[in-house]
């Protein structure tokens, strides 16, 4: 009997701490449509259907990459064209500037918007600790559908269906947080020289180690705040 009581208490404790993932009929219907196809594509690439997910956006070439963890590192699963984003290169600094942010962000289940006016949406987590330390303002920056943007990263509805579903299923499988790293361009020396005339060159150089370390290890790099900048 004591063992049964202990087991029941453990089940109750797990239930109380279970992460709630926002859902809706819209999102559920989308999953029923696209998840079987995505599972097939994952298996064809040797990836687990419920592996952890990492997102990376490269602004100047307008792509969003979805990476899925296999063993102890991430592998590129799919690359989606970003339909549009506003403000060109350079990160968002204030509410209403029309810019799309750049930096290292974190998604949690509560940031899924399953009833967005832009079909489906994922809040990227702007402003993060670095943005806040710099005094940047603004909120509700999303990856969403409808191919229209004022400070967000807009996909087509078909693309956001897949991205949203992959993120949702990763949370369902137990992933607590998903990193979404947003870079202005592929952070190599050639591009840094090419864009050196921009006022944000120093900020971009602070992002370069995060890009390089992921390229080397295929794992998102841990970072912390040092002064008002990223440190690794």
UniProtKB/TrEMBL annotation:
SUPFAM superfamilies per the UniProt record, alphabetical = L,D-transpeptidase catalytic domain-like
| InterPro entries according to UniProt | LD_TPept_cat_dom, Transpep_catalytic_dom
What GO molecular function terms would the record report? carboxypeptidase activity; transferase activity
Domain L,D-TPase catalytic residue range list: 53-183
Family designation: Belongs to the YkuD family.
- What PANTHER family would the database entry show? L,D-TRANSPEPTIDASE YAFK-RELATED (PTHR36699:SF1), LD-TRANSPEPTIDASE (PTHR36699)
Q: What is this protein called?
A: L,D-transpeptidase family protein
Lineage of the source organism?
Bacteria, Pseudomonadati, Bacteroidota, Sphingobacteriia, Sphingobacteriales
């Amino acid at each position: 009997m004591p063992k049964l009581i202990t087991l029941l208490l453990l089940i109750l404790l797990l239930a109380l701490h279970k992460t709630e993932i926002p859902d809706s009929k819209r999102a559920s219907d989308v999953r029923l449509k696209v998840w079987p196809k995505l599972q097939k594509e994952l298996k064809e690439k040797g990836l687990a259907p419920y592996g952890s997910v990492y997102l990376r956006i490269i602004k100047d070439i307008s792509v969003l990459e979805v990476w899925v963890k296999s063993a102890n590192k991430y592998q590129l699963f799919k690359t989606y064209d970003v339909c549009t984003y506003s403000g060109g290169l350079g990160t968002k600094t204030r509410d209403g500037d029309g810019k799309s942010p750049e930096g290292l962000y974190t998604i949690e289940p509560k940031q899924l918007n399953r009833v967005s006016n832009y079909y489906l949406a994922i809040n990227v987590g702007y402003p993060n600790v670095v943005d806040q330390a710099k005094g940047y303002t603004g909120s509700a920056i999303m990856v969403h559908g409808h191919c229209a943007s004022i400070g967000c990263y807009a996909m087509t509805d078909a693309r956001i269906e897949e991205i949203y579903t992959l993120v949702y299923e990763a949370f369902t499988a137990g992933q607590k947080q998903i990193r979404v790293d947003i870079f202005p361009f592929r952070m190599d020396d050639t591009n840094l020289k090419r864009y050196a005339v921009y006022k944000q060159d120093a900020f971009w150089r602070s992002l370069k180690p995060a890009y390089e370390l992921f390229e080397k290890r295929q794992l998102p790099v841990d970072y912390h705040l040092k002064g008002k900048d990223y440190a690794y």
